[in-house]
Fold:
Amino acid sequence: MSTTERSPGRPVAALVGLLAVAAALGAGHLVAGLLARPQASPFLAVGNAAIDRTPNPVKSFAIAVFGTNDKIALLAGMAVVIAVVAAVAGLVSRRRPRPGLIVVGVLGLIGGLAVAEQSPAAVSLLAPLAALATGLAAFVLLHARARAAARPDAGRRGLLLASGGVAAGAALGGLGGRLLADRVDVGASRRAVGPLVPAQPAPPIPPGAAFPELGTPPFLTPAADFYRVDVNLTVPRLRAQDAVLRIHGMVDREVELPFAEIAARPLVERTITMTCVSNYVGGPYVSTANFVGVPLGDLLAEAGVRPDAEQLVGRAVDGFTIGTPLDRVLGNPDALLAIGMNGEPLLPEHGFPLRTVVPGLYGYVSATKWLTDLELTTFAFDPYWEQRGWDGDPEGIVPIKTSSRIDAPAGFARVPAGEVVLAGTSWAPGRGIAAVEVSLDDGPWLPAELGAPVNTLTWRMWYLRVPLGSGLHTATVRATDRTGQVQTAERVDPINPGPDGATGRHTVTFTVA
Ligand SMILES: Nc1nc2c(c(=O)[nH]1)N[C@H]1C(S)=C(S)[C@@H](COP(=O)(O)O)O[C@H]1N2
Ligand SMILES: [Mo]
Structure:
């Protein structure tokens, strides 16, 4: 090595690492797009692998804090970590490229392992391999240019050109991968399915079932506003024309049903309220829709369920599994294999083209989205959440707990003096709501006006008008279900100790001006 040769400065060295890793990620994304397997993108695969390993309390915390943005937060966090590692790869290689190449190689290995797990087909490994090769090559190229540019009297043109080229390539790769992944055109597939006309429509929602003008949600949640909870960084893409539902396990005849055959059956429509076990008291993860589909129990009966089967396991394209006690499905005309919500095919976010909906149970044990496979089995099988310690015993799955939420006034709102309107919603799907009461400033329980009843599977809106003097007030709500059980005041967090759903009463504090 010549004594006149100098090492590049720290910023240049860090940039070499950053650009090489960016090029690797761009190449991986591009090849995943070319393969039409977005899950094979090393960046997304590492993210999804991280989600699968996140301890449940952290997962619930992220859902609670970031809501549906929890995934963007995870991707952004991951990008920062990778950028730091990449910069370090450059910084430790100011003299020789080897240390940086080792760091890039280790990143590539992690990407490869994540892809092998998240997108198990062998061809998927082409994406992390392309990423690794590109990362190493870009690193060697940029490193050489940076060393050359660091010589006294040397120009920086070569380095600038190489860096610009690598940066542009990385960006184009990332963008191209995205565009290519869009080739799996779920939007066109949804449009081709078209509006759904049930042979057996749900009874119309009666007037006075909701009081949106007073602050309750609308009775039917528009599909685009329906709460969303799942383990995916990007919405899985499954086209209706590619979907075939397999029913197997403890059945007399294995069945394979293409989507078109399911959609051609006489469709029924049911108004059902769904909620997530991770919803906290007063939280937003509860919504209602007119689900359109075929009774799930009938389909299973066609396959011939063996008498010793206990559990129905749904599998999805995202590798998710959900176990539902079979006695909740067989003979239950409201348990659906759903293909639509509110007259339209399911939105991609809500499981297009096929999902299950079993009223009265939390989503994680009843509502497989992007469904591909139904297996009849015993309780010996542990689905996704049970494998991660949620509600260890699928036999012990609890029904949705009676819950209430005050929607108006909002917490810490200022409302004008005089008559104050309190409004909200209560739900006990499967049992139905019989009464709702509100206590102001720890005073007596006052009965709220209830919305017109719809069915026992859905929420019930309520409101109460009370004259209140100016100052700070608190309101607490409780519901009574149709079995006569009063919603408990005992505060149980959704994740501790259960987790089998939060309990406690929602309270808001507001100011009357
Ligand atoms: N394939 C798949 N299905 C899934 C999930 C998932 O992560 N993957 N999440 C479940 C959970 S925890 C809930 S609460 C419901 C939410 O359904 P929604 O997003 O349509 O409201 O979907 C369930 N079905
Ligand atoms: Mo959930």
Observations:
- The chain has three domains: 3-181, 192-387, 403-512.
